[in-house]
């Protein structure tokens, strides 16, 4: 019995390559449409078939001629790369001279009346390979069909390229008809379903990758981990597959690879149960032995890793690399043990740990039906990571520690891990200050506003739980535990006035979404009513704050103020326990008031002890570059009190994180969990053997058609496919997510769906054709406003069969983040995305639960050589998918970045303090021994160790800015006017602001891509 996913894959293959199958699953040997219009992959045309006129005129789809791979002879690469290819092939290496057992398959169609009749062909051949020198052999295997075998000596053995060639010449057809041959002649002389299967009598050898000589440690470690995921064959115009057990290689026009999901349960789960049980950890009198058991179990596993390596025959550099991997594991173990010893030696830490477990437990059991049936349990990595961080948090609380990166696949439960740490630390700070601590404990930052909404709600639930516990424990103090949302005043009201004027009317009318639409405890939707007296109303505008409360009398928190803050200025001033912020919301930092900066600590309140950066890989390009400079300002401000916050970050895809961290945070970063000696197991997670939990990746590359035609054919097939499944199996695949990399393609894909796909589905599959109502074809874009995004996300949850179930969702990279819809099982990529990280992140958005096994389709664009090479190496690429993640690229010390953002950063530090220096106005700051000079020193000291050019670039820009600042002060005072940091109206000179009336205009967002805003000509200041 085939699974629904297998049935869909088979349907796709039959529609794209052939033969067609009817709804009963029987092969159709007679079809009514022309086979060249029906099939788009696995076919080879008569040689020299010219491009159709309509293609010639569109320069976008004229194929680039491929240069050919190192191993492939260039003629087959060229031939298979043509718009109408006449050959496909495969290259592999054998270790010695041998005999090849070949099986060649193809099909032909010939016209009979109004139908096309199919004839399949299959031929076996045996070819001897001597490998003595360069040899080429061409064998006519059937009329118009040639087999070409090309052999040559290479490192590691004999490289063999076997190609199947359509030997018919277009020119001959033209000669026969004395002019342009009719389309049907081309169709009848095209070969379909072409396939090669080869079993050599000698052993397959590995195709050598690039040398690792001089590669970074991390690249060597990755190469070592993936040492068994080797490439044994490369395709030409078709994908190559292999199987080492049968020692054979073959071509596949619609290749598929099952990429295993992960399991988070240890084989010893049962014996570790206590250490993972929230209830046990919260309530046991002696919970630490249970944690010791986790550490010793990990230790045992590390020993077994060493044993695995010892059995392999490794090169000396591999041995060193393996040793490094094991050392990192042991370091991870030491840090876990250190966390446990902190709990053992510090009674407040232990009590905080237990109460934090209690808070999380309370939160997990919040649903109104009472306790969940299963016992609340940590995943191994969650509790272990918490111990690692707790170990550092105690470090005399000086914060001389590294940043920690939680590296885990999407959906693994990273949020719970850091919410637990927030709970631990907020309790710790209350207990160790006799309940008086009133600063922000954790600052959690997101690169996109879209991500903050869900996190705000999750954090709100945590705070509700913490509040319920606080009320039972007077030692936790009087100030409520709260979470604040800090996303800038465009997205959330600045103050109560903005609520009344702008936001409340839109919430009431439903034009924009309320920051928390549902009760976080009982999930009942809030009533946002015009009449505040109405007992169903959940939202009250007070003197200086908004009160939200659940009005469901069955809810545990009915009529209690929800512990949240979302008025921007108020969040800064009242310092909620946790702040969920966007990076952008700090762009205005130099213009905040003194008491608002209290959010980041200072003299009056402690600085946050935890800074959480979710989705670290998104801090790349211009955004990461801008943020890296702002990080310096935050770093200065948050260390005024003498301590530095612990930075924890998370991601599912990262490479060279340490370089990124040095630029962003000015410190080292440690990745947790440490990698295993194979990618399948790192102790905290392991590759699953369950197919339902694994994603099936499938590649389609059409030939003889433009990418639009290809996309229409594939999208139509994928739209119709689910109708062939049993009704109860359709939901995961009913919504086709379409991923496009560029906004330009985006509009075209939506247009194709609305017109061409609809038309093709109707004409091909009537009367069983699927309806694709216009309003079920939806776009999800980063440029959508917040309430559009929320609406689309809500609609995505609507299950089949419902009239509003989305049929197709066209989206861009925005889906990589924050889209967590468990029912989604199908995503198609229109072209290979530009980055592998993007590909992994986006494809991880489907198949998140076993009930919706993920199916990922990539429609490769035949006219792009990059797409072709991903397709031809489909198996090799997917066998080690995570290996190919690219490092992020940020350049904070480039001229453009410094010009744009350094003024704001310099002013923020000078104004609000660095170490023990601060100033009341710009004149004082720039005076002798003033804070501006302290800021300069701080910024320069922070990047010691970076390349000299970057250091000099920063130094030069700082000198220029400080001189500029001095001249401006002189000029202002000579005119008798006072100087201020920010705009105070007419007659007062201001240093920074959002308009040109200030000396330096600052960016209102970290995503500004316009001209530099910081600099404008002034006085005699030299140009930089
Ligand atoms: Zn409620």
CA-based shape: globular
Class of secondary structure makeup: alpha/beta
Number of DSSP E strands: 34
Instruction: Output mean pLDDT.
Output: 89
Question: Helix fraction?
Answer: 25-40%
Number of helices: 30
How far apart the termini lie comes to 71 Å
**What low-confidence regions span 5 or more consecutive residues with pLDDT below 50?**
55-72, 1009-1024
Major sheet: arrangement of strands: 20-17-21-16-22-23-15-24
Q: Tell me which ligands are bound.
A: zinc ion
Q: What percent of residues are in strands?
A: 15-25%
The radius of gyration is: 32 Å
The main sheet comes to: 8 strands, parallel
Characterization of the model:
Helices cover 37% and strands 18% of the residues. It is α/β, with parallel strands linked by helices. The strands form seven sheets. Strands 20-17-21-16-22-23-15-24 form an eight-stranded parallel beta sheet, sandwiched between helices. Helix 8 runs antiparallel to helix 10 and helix 12 (347-364) packs across helix 14 (414-431). The longest helix has 30 residues, at 316-345. The model is unreliable at 55-72 and 1009-1024 (pLDDT under 50). The chain binds zinc ion. The site of zinc ion (ZN) has 8 residues, from loops.
